Amino acid sequence: MEIKVRNLVRSFGMTRAVDDISFEFAAGNVFGFIGPNGAGKTTTIRIMATLDLPDSGDVFYDGVSVVNYPEEVRRLVGYMPDSLPDFRDIQVWEYLDFFARSFGLRGAQRTRTLADIEEFTNLGGIRRKYLAGLSKGMKQRVSLARALVHNPGVLIMDEPAAGLDPRARLELRSLLKILSGQGKAILLSSHILSELQDICDGAVIIEKGRLLSAGTLSQLLAQASPGSAAGAPGAEGEGKPGVTLLIECAKCEEARLKLLEHPAVREVIIREEGKLQAFLEGDDEVVPPVMGTLFAAGLPVMGFARKSMGLEELFMKITTGEVQ
Ligand SMILES: Nc1ncnc2c1ncn2[C@@H]1O[C@H](COP(=O)(O)OP(=O)(O)OP(=O)(O)O)[C@@H](O)[C@H]1O
């Protein structure tokens, strides 16, 4: 399954909520859809889930258009909204049974499908509870179960990790891992990066309705690291994420100049007294020769560590935090 979002535009009055957004992801990807409050995530997701129409642009699921074939798309997409089910008089099993019926599942097939989904989402023990009486984590699992009833190839989740405790978040993460391992393409939105950074293998980052960056984590890192197209135009090492080192040493300025003599060293910043941050081109193999230049020069090094840029740092780097 390949999902292609193409030039989506959606305005509400004077507000251009989604302004020419294009990105793509595919089976096996877990992509974070990230942007500050009001960035246009829910608007985009609702269009992707056929609940709203774009002013222009389209979304294609293996070539099937949301604008022209919404009914067909609904069979391919599992959508989990940001509001959770909250009915006082409906039990968990009834809720899921209702959606299974509406997707045309009948008889033994429906019973088997629902039993499998209840087991997968660990709902067996609470299937006779009323929805309104469930905890947030339980409701989240019911909502996920509902989105999976028709075995969609794509799962789109609006703020699934919001308000979950660390344990529930871990559970969500392992369920998503299994689902992506089964070949589903997954997109989940959040404005809180730390919620997503250990779940996702890629991200789509938007702000004020505009796309800032999209791709797998390594593609994003490559775009954002110094020396890449997005980091320092014209520098070498374009397309490679590179390595960042944190170095503790006594003679920072001397060490900085020595490091810069090495061809793999792109930039060195003195972070604070006694601490350097060095950006290297290439992969881990360049670390020993670069550190070797300091040792060979007899410069005292107290310690060093390889620092990998996480999604959070990347997000801070890419966005400016502005909202409309
Ligand atoms: N139905 C609507 N009518 C008017 N304006 C709307 C409507 N839906 C969204 N907007 C506006 O469009 C912009 C994008 O909103 P959207 O809900 O898509 O952002 P979001 O990224 O999902 O934000 P959040 O993280 O706060 O949920 C906002 O300025 C919002 O006020």
From TrEMBL:
Which Gene Ontology terms cover its molecular function? ATP binding; ATP hydrolysis activity
Gene3D superfamilies of this UniProt entry?
P-loop containing nucleotide triphosphate hydrolases
**Ranges of residues in domain ABC transporter:** 3-233
Q: Which UniProt keywords apply?
A: ATP-binding, Nucleotide-binding, Transport
Superkingdom of origin: Bacteria
Work out whether the entry's keyword set contains Transport: yes
PANTHER family (alphabetical): ABC TRANSPORTER, ABC TRANSPORTER, ATP-BINDING PROTEIN
State the family named in the UniProt similarity comment for this chain.
Belongs to the ABC transporter superfamily.
Its protein name is: ABC transporter ATP-binding protein
Q: Name the source organism.
A: Victivallis lenta
